[in-house]
Design goal:
The protein has 3 domains: 8-34, no CATH class; 49-287, Alpha-Beta Complex (Spore Coat Polysaccharide Biosynthesis Protein SpsA, Chain A), CATH 3.90.550; 327-440, no CATH class. The chain has 16 helices and 19 strands. Helix 2 packs antiparallel against helix 3 (23-34) and helix 11 (239-254) runs parallel beside helix 12 (289-305). A hairpin with a 6-residue loop joins strand 10 (310-314) and strand 11 (321-325). By secondary structure, it is α/β, with parallel strands linked by helices. Strands 1, 2, 3, 4, 5, 6, 7, 8 and 9 form a 9-stranded mixed beta sheet that branches.
Length: 445
C-alpha cells in the first residue's frame, strides 16, 4: 500500500494539489490516500483462453462492423505497436482500425503497413490541425455502423469488442437501440504490466457526467450519431467529453426516457487499459490544463443549450467540476429532491443511498472526497436519500405527505428508525414512479 502511494507521480500530484488548494486540503487528501479504499487489492484478470475461444467462435460471423478511430501524433513506436496488437487480438473479428497520423515523419506508416492486415487502415494527414480536426478526417472514412475511440498509447482487452457487440445484440433482442455504449476501465503503468485504479462506472447519470467525464474509455457510438456531431476543434483536449455531452443531449431530446430505454448503455467489466506514463494526463494532470478549461466550457455550453441557468467552476480536483444551479426546480422539472451529506462527529451518517437504502458513503471522514475518483464530492443521481439535509419540490412533497397521512414536513423529519426508513423508501418510489429523480449535492452542508 505505502509503496503504491510513494511514487514520483503521486508526489507530483500532491505538490500541485498543495499549490492549488492549500495545506489543509492537501493534508486531508494525503490522509485519504493512506486509508483503505475499494480499489486496494485490485488485479486485472484476463478471460481464460477457453472463454476467449468461445467468444471467437460465437462472434466469427458478427454482422456489425466496428470502426476504431485512433488519431496519432509522434506516438512512441512501442506504444503504437502495442495499441495495434491489442486490436488484432480481439475475439470479435469484424472491425477496421483507422490510424490518422499527423506526425511529421513516415516512421509509423512503416510499422502499420508491416502488420499485413487489410483491416488496419493507415491514413497520412498532411497537416496537423489538432486532435479534433485530425479525428474528423478518419471519422469521415469510417465504414462501420458503430465507431469506437482508442487513444494512441492505450490498449483494449481482447474481449472489448465482443462485450460491446454482445450489449448491442442484447438491446436489439429487447426491442431497443443502443446508441452510445461505454465500458469500465483501469490504468496501467508505462509497460502495461501493473494495472490499478479500476473505474467501475454506474449506469448513465447526466448529473455525474456534468461533474466529470466518467464515461471516458472505452466508448462506442452509433456511426450516424458520431458523424452528425463530429469533433469540435474549439474543445481540443476535451473533445471526447464534448461529444459525449452532445450525444447524451441529442439522445435525450429524441427520447425523453433514453436511459430507461437503454440508448446509453453501461457495460460492466474492464475493456480498456489507460497507459499512465509521466506525460499522460492520468499521471500528471498539470500536463494538459487547457483540457480541463475546455471541459468546463463544454459543460457550460451543454447546460446553456438545455436552457438551464447555472455556473460551472473547477473543483479541488482537476477534471472535476461543480455545477451551481440558479433554480434547479424551475429549470429541471424532473428533479424532485436534492439531498446533501449528513455528518456526526466528523463522519458521514446520511446522504446519498442506493435503491435499497444502503448509505453510499457511510463513515466517510468530513473533508474526504470518496476515493481516487472523488465520487462522494460530485453531483449524482441516487436511489434514495436522507431527509435531514435536503430541499424538495414543494408541491410534490405535499402530495406525498398527504398520501402517507403525514401532516407536515416537520413531522416527516421527526420520524426515526423503521418508520423513517419506510418513509424514505416510500418517497423514493413515489418519485421514481413519476419518472423523476433524486439528486445528491455534496456541497450542500
Amino acid at each position: 500500500m505505502i509503496k503504491k502511494i510513494l511514487t514520483p507521480a503521486n508526489w507530483k500530484k500532491t505538490y500541485y494539489y498543495l499549490k492549488k488548494n492549500g495545506l489543509k486540503s492537501a493534508v486531508l487528501a494525503a490522509m485519504e490516500r493512506l486509508e483503505k479504499n475499494e480499489n486496494d487489492g485490485y488485479r486485472y484478470v484476463q478471460p481464460s483462453e477457453g472463454e476467449l475461444a468461445k467468444q471467437r467462435q460465437f462472434s466469427k460471423d458478427g454482422e456489425i462492423l466496428f470502426s476504431i478511430l485512433v488519431p496519432v501524433y509522434r506516438t512512441p513506436e512501442q506504444y503504437f505497436l502495442e495499441m495495434i496488437q491489442s486490436v488484432l487480438e480481439q475475439t470479435y473479428c469484424n472491425w477496421e482500425l483507422l490510424l490518422g497520423d499527423a506526425s511529421p515523419d513516415e516512421s509509423l506508416r512503416k510499422l502499420a503497413e508491416n502488420m499485413s492486415d487489410s483491416r488496419v487502415r493507415y491514413v497520412k494527414i498532411a497537416e496537423n490541425k489538432g486532435i479534433s480536426a485530425n479525428t474528423n478526417v478518419i471519422l469521415e472514412m469510417a465504414q462501420g455502423s458503430y465507431i469506437g475511440l482508442l487513444d494512441h498509447d492505450d490498449t483494449l482487452t481482447p474481449d472489448a469488442l465482443f462485450q460491446v457487440y454482445h450489449a448491442i445484440k442484447k438491446s436489439e433482442n429487447a426491442g431497443k437501440i443502443a446508441r452510445m455504449l461505454y465500458t469500465d476501465e483501469d490504468k496501467g503503468d508505462g509497460q502495461m504490466q501493473f494495472f490499478y485504479d479500476v473505474n467501475k462506472k454506474p449506469a448513465f447519470d447526466q448529473d455525474y457526467l456534468w461533474s466529470n467525464n466518467y464515461i471516458c474509455h472505452f466508448t462506442v457510438m452509433e456511426a450516424g450519431l458520431m458523424k452528425e456531431l463530429k469533433f469540435r476543434p474549439e474543445f481540443d483536449g476535451a473533445q471526447d467529453f464534448d461529444i459525449f455531452l452532445r450525444a447524451a443531449r441529442k439522445i435525450a431530446e429524441e427520447n425523453e426516457n433514453c436511459c430507461k430505454d437503454s440508448q446509453v448503455v453501461n457495460i460492466s467489466g474492464v475493456s480498456y487499459h489507460w497507459r499512465c506514463h509521466m506525460d499522460s494526463t492520468a499521471v500528471n494532470p498539470q500536463s494538459k490544463l487547457y483540457a480541463y478549461e475546455a471541459g468546463k466550457r463544454a459543460v457550460e455550453e451543454d447546460l446553456k443549450v438545455r436552457g438551464i441557468e447555472a455556473s460551472v467552476t473547477h473543483s479541488k480536483h482537476l477534471g472535476f467540476y461543480e455545477v451551481h444551479f440558479a433554480d434547479i426546480f424551475r429549470d429541471r422539472p424532473q428533479v424532485a429532491m436534492v439531498a446533501g451529506p449528513v455528518f456526526e462527529k466528523g463522519r458521514m451518517v446520511g446522504g446519498a443511498r442506493d435503491e435499497h437504502g444502503k448509505l453510499l458513503y457511510g463513515g466517510l471522514r468530513k473533508g474526504f472526497s470518496g476515493g481516487h475518483l472523488h465520487r462522494a464530492s460530485v453531483w449524482q443521481q441516487c436511489g434514495q436519500a436522507d431527509f435531514t439535509n435536503a430541499i424538495f419540490r414543494e408541491d410534490l412533497l405535499l402530495e406525498f405527505l398527504k398520501s402517507q397521512g403525514v401532516s407536515s414536513r416537520e413531522e416527516l423529519l421527526s420520524h426515526n428508525g423503521e418508520c423513517r426508513d419506510r418513509l424514505r423508501a416510500a418517497w423514493a418510489k413515489y418519485v421514481h414512479d413519476r419518472a423523476m429523480i433524486i439528486l445528491y449535492n455534496p456541497q450542500m452542508e
